[in-house]
Amino acid sequence: MQLTYLGQSAFHIEMNGTQLILDPMISSNPLASHIDLSSLHSDYILLSHGHGDHVADAETLAKQSHAKIIAGYEVVTWYENKGFAGHPMNLGGKYKFDFGTVKYVQAVHSSMLPDGSYGGPSGGFVIWNEEKSFYFAGDTALTLDMKLIPMTCPTLDFAILPIGDNFTMGYEDAVLAAEFIQCDTIVGCHYDTFGYIKIDHEAAIAEFKNAGKNLILLNIDQSINL
Ligand code: NI
Ligand code: MN
Fold first, then answer.
1. CATH number of residue 184's parent domain
2. Is-contact 215 171, C-beta < 8 A?
3. How far is it, in rounded angstroms, from Cα 202 to Cα 217?
4. Range of 58's domain?
5. 8 Å CB contact between 162 and 140
């Protein structure tokens, strides 16, 4: 599975020939100014919640690729009312799509859409098919509910966790999250984009290493196979 980091919490993932984009905020992120939005194709756009740093480019990307938006019920309804195609989910539910199964899981965070509309609860996604399984946590605090993931989903190959602190858990709590979800390969996100969430990369990597885990911090526009 190929994973490309697009900055903040945005990722492009190719899974079974299907292209997914997660939480796109690219054109308004100065750190991602070298990414050409018009070059990004997606079949599905997954949104963890309605905050601007996760949905800013969702409309542009959905329009240019005729992509379907997968998100919580309130977020999808907001986009459907604007004429976009969506697939609504709610916490604890899973659905088998053509690329794999998506389970929409608990996040401890708030949510509001760009115009101030209620965004419903925030969530994360566990996504799997016959080959791979991964967890995209969205924005969340450390929560004991993460322990439910290994009890209810296939063994994770990797997880994408926020590590920037202030608005989400910081990297120290993310190490505990990695323990809760029983996963040793973590891709960090939600750091460095603005002043409140700037982190010391070496300290974050060392914190994971001390717990026997690998924290991967990708450059923006860097791709890896996981
Ligand atoms: Ni948020
Ligand atoms: Mn955020």
1. 3.60.15.10
2. yes
3. 10
4. 2-225
5. yes
Query: Distance, CA 121 to ligand 1 centroid (Å)?
Result: 11
Question: Which residues surround the ion ligand 1 when the cut-off is CB under 5 Å?
Answer: 51, 139
pTM for this model (two decimals): 0.98
Per-residue model confidence as pLDDT tens digits over 179-191: 999 999 999 999 9
Q: What is the pLDDT of residue 22?
A: 98
Q: Rounded to the nearest whole angstrom, what is the distance from the C-alpha of residue 111 to the centroid of ligand 1?
A: 6
Q: Give the chain's domain count.
A: 1
